[in-house]
Amino acid sequence: MRISHLLSALLLSAPVAAEEVVVPAGPFTMGIDHPRATDEKPSRQVYLSAFSIDRYEVTNARFAAFVAATGYQTEAEKRGAEKADSISWRQPHGPDSAAAPDHPVVYVSWQDARAYCAWRGGRLPTEAEWEKSARGSDGRLWPWGAKFAAGRANLWGAEDGYEQLAPVGSFPSGASPYGALDMAGNVWEWCADWYDANYYATSPTKDPQGPETGRFKVLRGGSWINPGPVLRSINRFEVLPVERSPYIGFRCARSHAP
């Protein structure tokens, strides 16, 4: 059996149902006031309506089910980029590699992530929703608490048995207050928002949606290639929406009826 056919069979045989956690309506502290903070300030109270967010990062198995059901082609496939560099979400480490069903899907652009979430009846989380999902309402800096703790995330330099990506949910002690896993490390996660370094100074304090336009999209959470400080729940990063990388994945959110 060809490796591509074997991979497809393995991916499609894995569970695809998404498990969500509920983030209740209410205020939380977004950002931080710190002399060395740049785009993370000012700290302020933001009120969010109730929503749900995936407990886990979207896996290769789930993304494969989406592709099989819809015939979706990634932006890279449409441009021919996957053939040019022999790297894709199916073969994230090159032509002789295979995507593990329970690993987070990578090499997906912002639009690819958005399309998957829409197929599921959801959407990408806003930057504010992502931050509340990760740090809760008590102002903590990491999903598990106020201080960094080893062994709670897949990150650079950790002796955790994973050279790169880890299966989703491998670090239950790193769960957020609402039960979301891998909000720190493993892969950076796409958010819905355009990026603006100064957005916090003028953004709405209820259900902010991000700037109307921009050049870059927001990433959150850090990845396996980053050290602990980068994994703080307040840390912001920006990339072009067409970016695809072995460090970038996503999870979906869903609005609740008013």
Defining key terms:
disordered N terminus, 4-stranded mixed beta sheet, 9 strands, 258 residues, 3-stranded antiparallel beta sheet, paralog of FGE (formylglycine-generating enzyme), alpha+beta
What is the C-level CATH assignment?
Alpha Beta
* Structure annotation, total helices: 6
Outline type: globular
CATH architectural grouping: Alpha-Beta Complex
Corresponding CATH superfamily: paralog of FGE (formylglycine-generating enzyme)
Mean pLDDT: 92
Secondary structural class: alpha+beta
| CATH fold label | paralog of FGE (formylglycine-generating enzyme)
Percent of residues in beta strands: 5-15%
Please tally the β strands and state the result: 9
First-residue to last-residue Cα separation: 51 Å
- Which stretches are poorly predicted, pLDDT < 50 over at least 5 residues? 1-16
- Return the domain count: 1
Q: What is the H/E string?
A: HEEEEHHHHHEEEEE
Percent in helix: 10-25%
How would you describe this structure to a colleague?
This protein is of the alpha+beta class and 258 residues long. The chain has one domain: paralog of FGE (formylglycine-generating enzyme) (Alpha-Beta Complex), CATH 3.90.1580. The chain is built from six helices and nine strands; from the N terminus they run αββββαααααβββββ. The strands form three sheets. The protein has a four-stranded mixed sheet with strand order 7-6-5-8. The protein has a three-stranded antiparallel sheet with strand order 1-4-9, covered by helices on one side. A two-stranded antiparallel ribbon has the order 2-3. The longest helix has 11 residues. The chain is globular, with a radius of gyration of 18 Å. The termini are far apart. The N terminus is likely disordered.
